[in-house]
Amino acid sequence: MKSRYIPLTQQPFCCLPTCIQMILLRRKLKLLSQEEIGRELGLIVPKEYKKILPLARTGKKPSSGWGTQASEKKFSINKFLKKFKYPLREKYFPLSKIKDVEKWLAKELKEGSDIMVCFNYKRLYGEGNDGGHISLIEKINYYNKTFTLIDPEGNVPKFRDVKIKKLVNSIKYHGKKNYGGFIVLK
Fold this sequence. Notes:
The chain is of the alpha+beta class. It has one domain (15-185): Cathepsin B, Chain A (Alpha-Beta Complex), CATH 3.90.70. Helix content is 28%, strand content 22%. The chain has helices at residues 15-26, 34-40, 77-83, 101-110, 121-125, 164-174; strands at 44-45, 57-58, 90-93, 114-120, 132-141, 146-150, 159-163, 181-185. The longest helix has 12 residues, at 15-26. The protein is globular and about 45 Å long.
């Protein structure tokens, strides 16, 4: 399958930084490490992971789960993009702002947008972490009503077809307060 992205595998709790790396690669922009990106986006990990990710913060587990805290203004993706002078801007779209997910995504993909989706991992895949996860949307498969996601998680296929309805339900379950929804970079 020809992809717009080079699939990468994440360090622990670094799904968002890894998706950003894939976007930077696609757009031929300066690449930073997952840990550097994570630090800017408020990466927080359990204490035992500090040896693996020394730039990360430790502390109480957030409601969204371990990982980045990009929904907080001080750790926003736009703040990161501006600091490193990337010619991109981020906009967050909760499900409540989208009438027809399939049509909206088709329009965004046609315009060349990079679209990340934040959802509850266990709710979507039926196993694994019962917390937030982010993947990139590669394409829409109209014939079987699925999206192809590029999943940065280790030990899983990089390209995963998921039913649109199931993805929407896993976004709803994760919730707007935990950044559940779509993150668009243009």
